[in-house]
Design goal:
By secondary structure, the protein is an alpha/beta fold. The protein contains 12 helices and 11 strands.
């Protein structure tokens, strides 16, 4: 520990003056053994996660989460712990991305003895009229064949043309075609989608922009969507998407991080807070705005007061309870 201007600064993590740290008000003190163990566990997570080290990364993430469970409430609110937890969240996203990049194991195709193998080029162009992609060329990764007067094509080839997500159930040795939006609509469940800035630097923000959700919502009118984080910082676009699409709501989660002096925040961040209230008020869609936190990166009591400052008091009951109860079908 070193002393600077009558402030104790932790050598484990450098903090800004005025930032709450550990158990002191504005002074950084020696972290507990549990905090040290958690930060060490987070640092052990690979910085770059690929298909080659994804299994190792999953183990390290699990160990970090286990260490996090041993922390107390005050320790979880510490700035260093909050930032470290963001690393875990980003690493989990990277793990999913690495899994998607990894080549899937597919069963070997065994052709019947009397099958006639034909050139894939014969079938890769179709003009069915009713099918999506009419007249386009789609490559095949293996040749189709004819048996008993019927032409057999790979399930993945046809499924992806039709817009389905295609997977393989190893337990039952069966191909699975899934339309997630149709599934959500059938069971009347909303799809919550992260929108806006992300902590993962390799992510492409164009896919997290509210206008991307607009396209999906317009094409799937029977499916309800919840835009997480009100698309922050793309507030103008987020407001337009919610106002235009009756099947899109938005939550106000993840707009703060760590411990925050709310009065001071609204003074220092008056411009940003003004933009939030301006667009929320402009569209007036209070039946479609939900309270959310992104806990544990925020203090719940402080975040409630933060959202109350954004939302007119007459709409608090809707924003803090009724809307979520209705949209998520909680039945409370």
């Amino acid at each position: 520990m070193t002393e600077r201007k009558d402030k104790l600064v932790c050598e484990l993590e450098e903090h800004k003056h005025g930032e709450k740290c550990y158990e002191s008000e504005w002074t950084c003190t020696e972290p507990s053994d549990d905090v040290k163990a958690f930060l060490r566990a987070v640092k052990a997570i690979p910085e770059e996660i690929t298909a080659e080290n994804v299994e190792e990364a999953e183990v390290k993430i699990a160990e970090a989460i286990e260490a996090y469970q041993h922390l107390g409430g005050a320790e979880k609110a510490n700035a260093s712990v909050v930032r470290a937890y963001d690393v875990i969240l980003a690493a989990k996203i990277a793990v999913e991305a690495a899994k998607n990049e990894a080549p899937e194991e597919t069963p070997e195709t065994v052709l019947p003895e009397d099958a006639v193998v034909i050139d894939p080029a014969v079938l890769v162009e179709y003009t069915g009229g009713e099918l999506p992609g009419d007249g386009q060329i789609f490559p095949m990764d293996c040749a189709p064949y004819i048996k008993g007067g019927r032409t057999y094509v790979p399930v993945r080839f046809l499924g992806e043309i039709l817009g389905y997500e295609v997977g393989w159930d190893g337990q039952f040795q069966t191909a699975v075609l899934l339309d997630r939006d149709e599934l959500a609509a059938r069971y009347d469940k909303p799809v919550a989608v992260h929108m806006g800035l992300t902590a993962f630097p390799r992510a492409h923000l164009k896919y997290a922009h509210p206008l991307t959700l607009d396209e999906v919502a317009a094409d799937h009118r029977r499916t309800r969507f919840v835009m997480c984080h009100f698309g922050n910082p793309f507030l103008e676009s987020a407001a337009a998407v919610v106002e235009k699409n009756p099947n899109v709501a938005a939550d106000l989660s993840g707009l703060l991080e760590g411990r925050v002096d709310i009065d001071r925040y609204f003074q220092e961040q008056a411009g940003y807070a003004g933009l939030l209230t301006t667009w929320l008020t402009a569209i007036g869609q209070w039946d479609d705005v939900l309270y959310g936190t992104d806990w544990p990166i925020v203090n719940l009591e402080e975040y409630i007061r933060f959202v109350q400052r954004l939302m007119p008091e007459r709409h608090w009951e809707k924003g803090f309870f009724q809307n979520a109860n209705r949209i998520y079908g909680l039945g409370l």
